[in-house]
Structure formats: C-alpha cells, structure tokens
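Dear support,

I submitted the protein below through the web form. The confirmation email said the job was done, but the results page showed an empty box. After a refresh the structure appeared. I'm attaching both so you can tell me whether what I see now is the final result or a partial one.
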Amino acid sequence: MRVRRDESRRSPAHGALLLAVASLVLAACGSAPASAPDPSASPSVTPSLSVGVTPSASASGDPSASATPIVVDPAHAVDPPGPLTDGLAGADLMVSRAEPFTAEQRQAMAGVAGVVETEELGLASVGIQNRVISVAAVDPASYRRFTPQGSAQLEAVWERVAGGELAVTPALSRQLRRVTDQDGWLRLGNDVTAPDVHIGAVAPQAPRIDAVVNDAWAADLGLPVGNAVLVWTGETAPQEVRPALERLAGADASVQILGPDLDISVQQTAFLTGGSVATGVGSFSYRVLDGGRIAPDPAWVRANIRTERVPILGSVTCHQILFPQLRAALTEVVQRGLADEIHPDEYAGCYYPRFIAGTTQLSLHAFGIALDLNVPGNLRGTRGEINRDVVRIFQKWGFTWGGDWAWTDPMHFEMNAVVQPR
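What the results page shows now:
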C-alpha cells in the first residue's frame, strides 16, 4: 500500500515553508573528536538557513534549533533528540548484510577488542530514476554522533529527521534537483507503490550512506531493522578489528572500512527495497571489478538472471521477474501494428552488472529490471523520438519511462510494478 502525503495538513503558509526543500546545507568536516563538543563553540561550518527552519536561541547555543520542532509527517515522527550532549564518535567500519543481525551478534561485535562504540541501522538501497542510493533508518539521537561534526552538532537536522523527514547528503541533493516535486517530496523507490518522503535537510552523513530517515519509517520502506552496524575503533586501526568482526558477522556479511573511497577489498551487498518489484528482485552480494564493473554472487545470477527470446528484440538477458511483462508489452506492440517502431539493432541491453559511469552507485540495469530501446534517437536530455503509443503500452504493463523524468532518458524503461498478464 502506498504511503501518500496528507494534503489536508498543508496550509498555504506551510506550503510556502515546504518550498525550501533543502533548507539546511552543510559542508563536510574533518574527523570527529572523541570528547564532548563545546556547546559554546560555533560549528566549523555555517549552515545556510531559510524559511524551512525557524532560527531561535537555545540552551545549546545552536541557532539552527527550533523552539518548536517542525513535524511535517506526524505518522512517522519520533521524539525529537534535543541538544547534543554526548561526545562524537567516528564511523570507521560498517558491517552489513541483507538479513538483520541477532542481538547476540550485535552485542558480540560491540565487545570486540578495539571497538569503542557501535550503532545499529536499518540499511537498504532504493532506486530513484535508475540511480540506486543507500538509505538508512536510524535513531536520530544516537546516529548523529557518527556523522561529521558539522552535521552532528546542528540540532535542526535531527529534529527534521525525528519529525518524519529525509536528510540527504549534499551530493545526493544535487542529483535530486530534477527529481523532487515543487514542494520537496520524493518518491523513495522506483516502484509505483513506493512512499513519498519529504526532504527536510541536506547534511553530510556517515560514509556509504546517501540519506537517512528515522526508524519509524522502516516498515513502510521495507528497511530491515538491524542489518547494519557502524563501528568506531578510536585509536585502533580498523584493519586490526576487521577479522574478528568478519568471524562474528558470518560469510554473508560485508565488513568494509569506511573512507572517502569504496573499500573494494570486500564484498558489498545490494538490497533493493521500495515495493513489490524490489521484493521480487531479491538481494545479492557482489565484488567490485576494474572499470566500474561488479561481479554479483553467481548463485543469485543463476537463480534470477535469464536469457530468453521475446517478440521483436529476439534473445535478451534480464531478471526473470521482468519477462512476463516485457513479453506481454512487446506482444501488444506487435498486435497493434507498431512492431516497426522498435528497432532491434538499436537495443542497448537489460542486465548490466556495473556502476553508473563515474560513480559507485548501481543502476537498475545491475538488477536486470531496466532496458534501453532505440538508443540513437532517444539520448539523455532530449524529448526522444520513440513512438508514444509504444510508451503507453509499456506503461500499461508495469514500466515507467525515462522520457517522463525532468532530466529525460527516453531510451530507458524500468519495471515499476508487478502486473500479472492474463
């Protein structure tokens, strides 16, 4: 069931407030100190505040803290965290897998020699216009301590997260400029049933995390609770701690050292969430190869990736969940006399296990649920030449079309609903 925003709670004054989508823009800071922050000290960066946050003096001396925290989504709100009083932690390692860790495993990780503190997360990936981002469900009061200093100390960021909103990194904010609606709502997932979440803050997060919500969102987003743990090792080198964490986490887990670059020495986990399509796709582990390529777990590939013949295109390789709807769409194209509108020699594929060029983000092609048609006449940023009746047929059969995106990609079709052909 789709979680929709409640239009009844948006007064005209509130509508003006929501136009400030990313009302809090921060720059990344250096490593976090081990001692408690000086409440009288100014953050090392100055936030840019607009109507999205009401400045007020507070006991913490943080001018970004609201006297009355703004709650945009009461159905997904948790208690506001209040001023930061504890010392900051560092995010040195992340332990993650598709399934939640047991309480015993998490306790054992926290007790490993060299581990100073740990923080439990719910971590998964969501597809947004063919870009797969990592989203974490967190306790804003404790997780904030594992973010860079400038983020951790700004109470308004975590009030917004506690109030049911999304906090995104500056890099992701730039990528989303063309994706959110005019009031700052974002469909968090490529599935037509994925929920809408309001972007309330832009702030650096722990490494390898693009966006965070509070843990009240976990169930509606399909985020597993407790499938990831951030680890701070203090003065101990993360490399010394990793072997013990790997033994405790198990062979299906990833234990990666966090830093500015992706740790390519360990396996990663792709756990897609956000609706029925994501459920059907499943999760897989993978290793990073040269040239932006990845090597998914061969067992997942054998169980899910198929090469089959379909009308017009002939032999194609995709996720098995895609074939019934792709075959139904192409059959209808033929039946309606539109087969000549799709050019098999201009088909650019479906399943491509690789990152988006120049990034460490997967596309939905890596899951085998997207395909590119008639490439030469339908390049990114153009209106595209593909026949609009063909587009409507694909949409009928559970595909979204990249030509409808603000930054168009008219060659691109991706599965956004499970439709059972009859």
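Response: this is the final, complete result; the empty box was a page-load delay. The radius of gyration is 22 Å.
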